[in-house]
Amino acid sequence: MAQHAPHRPADPQASRRQFLRQTAGAAAGTALFTQLGHGGVWAAGSDTPEKKEVRIGFIPLTDCASVVMASVLGLDQKYGVKITPSKEASWAGVRDKLVNGELDFAHVLYGLVYGLHLGVGGPKKDMAVLMGLNQNGQAITLSKALADKGAVDGPSLAKAMAQNPRDYTFAGTFPTGTHAMWMHYWLAAAGINPLSGAKLITVPPPQMVANMRVGNMDGFCVGEPWNHRAIMDGIGITANTTQDIWKDHPEKVLGATGEFAQKYPNTCRAVIMAILEASRWIDASLQNKLKMAETVAQKSYINTSVDAINQRILGRYQNGLGKTWDDPHHMKFFNDGAVNFPYLSDGMWFLTQHKRWGLLKSHPDYLAVAKQINRIDLYTQAASQLKVAVPKDAMRSSKLMDGVVWDGKNPAQYADSFKIKA
């Protein structure tokens, strides 16, 4: 699995600098996973995957692409495993199959994994996040009927709801998942209480557009291509992208049960390497992105037209009302490894929102839970094999749409600080 050392470069100083960088990165990684208490022992020569064939569940969304391409491009076999992507109908289905062992891994919602670990939104089960699969690239869609009445963003939606009181319904894709949390956060930032001022329902991603078409909801939050599809079909508009809510936010992860990660660490590392290489391949060029779009649009994966996918993956956006823009913070799969590192603070953020909205009744030990779930040790070992840089710190700082900074330093205070909460 280790790559051969390259020929000696002409510039010995450059070579030395590169070596020092890699050594520093490896040392930082070692420090990180030693601190996380997983032991992280990986004896050279005993790294053959324990399980050679694995099933990875996915939902038909653009952000399943790195899992699909790892299989389609044969990158899995390079690392001694065979990935079988398994198309699933709903996130509840993904949850159940992960828990009962029908799936080995899944392209899965960050918050779903965290909820399961704490027994919220499913049976209590020790879980593992092995890597991030993408950042950004989801959106909030409002119905064309609402847009025609002037509701085109959060503030104008709040105004329209106040002027025309009735029951307003919005959809997410799973109660503890990312889309439910983006929808809650976005509504609350506009002064709309998502618990008392609106009704929130759960709809699987591929069914969002059909449900809006028949009037089952006023708005939804989902991954692509379903927001762009709603515009193409003339039934919805993009009010905000999720990167408007939180630039470079965590989104889908590669998830497994804690038991699986414990039992098959070499398999986990091999799969991480295959998907990491696929992620790097997707982000490497325009040509690769378009090839990816053609592949995942097929019936066996997302089952939509290529033109529903290929614009937004390049950052070319339109809102369905005549506005177009280029968004530098479109969906990323690699971004020099920044996408894939499982930051502890990212996982902790979802817990703060679960507490904010009453899904958790008391404050958990936020950092301890994140350290149990996010397998930085396995990720760092896999990344080092591919010479992918890992950050020195497992926490990162971000400013969200309402100006509030999240850095993971005082999660309980952060969760309690919001005016609108359960």
Most strands sheet? 5 strands, mixed
Shape: globular
Report the average pLDDT across residues.
Answer: 91
Q: What's the total number of strands?
A: 14
| Helix content, binned percent | 40-55%
In terms of per-residue confidence, which ranges show pLDDT below 50 for 5 or more consecutive residues?
1-45
Distance between the termini: 50 Å
The chain-level structural class is alpha/beta
- β-strand amount: 15-25%
What is the number of helical segments per DSSP (H or I, 4+ residues)?
18
Biggest sheet: strands side by side, in what order? 2-1-3-10-4
| Whole-angstrom Rg | 21 Å
General description of the model:
Strand 11 (316-318) and strand 12 form a beta hairpin. The protein has helices at 12-35, 65-72, 75-78, 91-100, 110-117, 144-148, 154-163, 178-189, 208-213, 226-232, 242-245, 258-263, 265-284, 286-296, 344-356, 366-373, 376-385, 411-416; strands spanning 53-58, 82-87, 105-109, 127-132, 138-143, 169-172, 199-202, 219-223, 236-241, 252-257, 316-318, 324-326, 398-399, 405-406. The chain has 18 helices and 14 strands. It is 41% helix and 15% strand. It is of the alpha/beta class and 422 residues long. The chain has a 5-stranded mixed beta sheet, with helices on both faces. A 5-stranded mixed beta sheet has the order 7-6-8-5-9, sandwiched between helices. Helix 5 packs across helix 15 (344-356), helix 13 (265-284) packs across helix 14 and helix 13 (265-284) crosses helix 17. The chain starts with 11 loop residues before the first helix and ends in a 6-residue tail after the last helix.
